[in-house]
Amino acid sequence: QVQLVESGGGLVQAGGSLKLSCAASKHTFSGYAMGWFRQAPGKERESVARIAWSAGTTYYADSVKGRFTISKDNAKNTVYLQMNSLKPEDTAVYYCAARSTSSTHYDYWGQGTQVTVSS
Prior knowledge:
Number of helices: 0
Number of strands: 11
C-alpha cells in the first residue's frame, strides 16, 4: 500500500509563495506519474501539475503555468509543488496522487493540505 503525505499548506497573501511537499512511502516510483490536484469549495477537483517519475517530463494546467513548478527528489521519494505569485483563486485543498504511467487512473491519494490566499 502506497501512502502519500502532503505538507506545506497555509495562509498567504496574494502575490506570495508556498511550497508543498508530498512524501511517498513506496520504495521507488519508477514507472509512475505523480500529480498535484486541487479542489476549491463548490468546485470540481482539477489537475494542477504532474511529473513522470522516470522521465521527469512535466505538465501544467494553463491556470498555473509560469507560476507553479513541480519537481521531485528521488532520494527522498518526495514530490514538490512550488507556488509563486499566488492568487485568491488558487485557494483550495491541494492533493498529491500517484498512478502508473500505463494507466490514466490515479490509484493513490494523499489526505490533502489547505492553501488559502488572501486578497
